[in-house]
Design brief:
This protein has 17 helices and 8 strands. The protein is α/β, with parallel strands linked by helices and 404 residues long. The protein starts with 8 loop residues before the first helix and ends with a helix. The structure holds adenosine-5'-diphosphate and magnesium ion. The site of adenosine-5'-diphosphate has 19 residues, from helix 3 and helix 12.
């Protein structure tokens, strides 16, 4: 940087109108003081779990609703209350919370039970023991805690079942028949509604002794949530009139997702802050939306398997060269060259064609089937993203694959 580049930088930094009072309050992990519009769900769940405080086994409970409808927030709120009451009353109550989305926790039955055991204070090797042995350790730990109820919460349980199958839930619900001094209750939480139809009815009914649904928030409800949070997060008067309403409307457009709404508001604030403005304007919301979408796509690209990344890179490179839609065969030629450069074992064209289909499903590219008359049908493929993002993705992919 040239020396004069710093001229006034620090002064400006210090004088900068600070938009935020507490940006933390807009982070997803932040626990708000009040939970709005969820009284029915909170009271119902509290009623279902309350027997645990009398050392009676609560029914197993299945909670479902789309992302950002407050499921995680509410269950943590309720169980924290229960724990503090249990503590003052000297009741034995144990609550184990696991988020099954976390990597390496819940891709096998072994890992899940090992993680539960770990939460109970005992280390188990990450692999190696027979699964039965892990269960035995789990049983012993449970029994050692005489007359106590253990509530096991499996958040994002759909992720667990997707990876490890549904048998595991059935096994967990059956454990009680082998326990003498103690009982466990299961709480499963799912973001995915369709998932419940896909699991074995036997498993579903063992988990769903009780069910609670979290409906999406409507726009006015999201407004209330945002307003409350904005009071803590922003300095007074920095939000343009109508901004919260618009932000809520955006979030309610797909489904009423409070997480998305909060993120949108935070990013809009950051954009205004970076521009050294003293107000967050409504048009910053559009910019924020674009930025979030860009980050979402980048994240997807980064987490793709190597073969998909190389396929995507081939598409981007070919499209750049030809400036028109590409055909699978041409993509495959580039793909093979890239494989040779990166020491990747090339897949068959058929398999690469499948990967192209997957990338299409993710919305990163578009593949249109066109008829070539008597030559059959083929797919015309092109990247589906703004130019700047394409360049960024190209850089990221080249770096990941060690290509220059
Ligand atoms: N009723 C509510 N009142 C205040 N904040 C909420 C409410 N519902 C959700 N939130 C906030 O929205 C975000 C997403 O909520 P979360 O409980 O993680 O949703 P889910 O688990 O259903 O995906 C969190 O930051 C949470 O604090
Ligand atoms: Mg959640």
């Amino acid at each position: 940087m040239a020396q004069k580049g710093l001229n006034g930088f620090f002064e400006k930094y210090l004088d900068e109108t600070n938009i935020f009072k507490s940006k933390k309050a807009l982070q997803i992990s932040y626990t708000p003081e009040t939970i709005l519009h969820r009284d029915i769900q909170i009271n119902t769940i509290a009623g279902i779990l309350a027997p645990a405080l009398r050392e009676e086994k609560p029914s197993n409970l299945f909670i479902y609703g789309k992302t950002g409808t407050g499921k995680t927030l509410c269950i943590k709120h309720i169980t924290n209350h229960m724990l503090s009451v249990a503590e003052t009353r000297g009741t034995g109550l144990r609550i184990i919370y696991l988020n099954c989305k976390m990597k390496r926790i819940a891709d096998t039955e072994y890992r899940l039970v090992a993680q539960i055991v770990k939460e109970m204070g005992q280390e188990i090797p990450a692999t190696g023991l027979p699964t039965d042995e892990v269960y035995n350790i789990f049983f012993k730990l449970l029994e050692k805690n005489k007359d106590k109820i253990t509530i096991i919460i499996l958040d994002e349980i759909d992720q667990l079942i997707k990876k490890a199958g549904d048998e595991i839930i059935y096994n967990l619900t059956r454990i009680n028949s082998d326990l003498v001094h103690t009982q466990i209750s299961l709480v499963g939480i799912s973001n995915n509604l369709i998932f419940t139809d896909a699991i074995d009815p036997r498993v579903r009914s063992s988990l769903s002794e009780e069910e609670v649904v979290f409906p999406p928030y409507n726009a006015p409800q999201i407004q209330d949530i945002l307003k409350k949070r904005a009071e803590t997060a922003f300095k007074e008067g920095v939000l343009e009139k109508g901004l919260i309403e618009k932000c809520a409307a955006y979030a309610a457009r797909e489904h009423g997702d409070a997480r998305r709404a909060l993120e949108l508001l935070r990013v809009a604030g950051e954009i205004a802050e970076r521009k050294s403005l003293s107000k967050v304007r409504i048009d910053h919301l559009d910019e924020a939306e674009e930025k979030i979408e860009k980050e979402r796509i980048l994240e997807i690209v980064k987490t793709q398997p190597k073969q998909s990344q190389v396929t995507l890179l081939s598409i981007i490179l070919l499209f750049e060269k030809e400036e028109k839609t590409c055909l699978t065969g041409d993509i495959y030629e580039i793909y093979k060259k890239l494989c040779a450069k990166t020491d990747l074992r090339p897949l068959t064209q058929r398999r690469v064609s499948d990967i192209i289909g997957e990338l299409d499903m993710l919305g990163i590219i578009t593949a249109t089937v066109v008829s070539k008359g008597r030559y059959g049908r083929t797919r015309e493929i092109k990247p589906n993203m703004p130019h700047a993002l394409k360049q960024k993705i190209k850089e990221v992919l080249k770096e990941e694959q060690g290509l220059s």
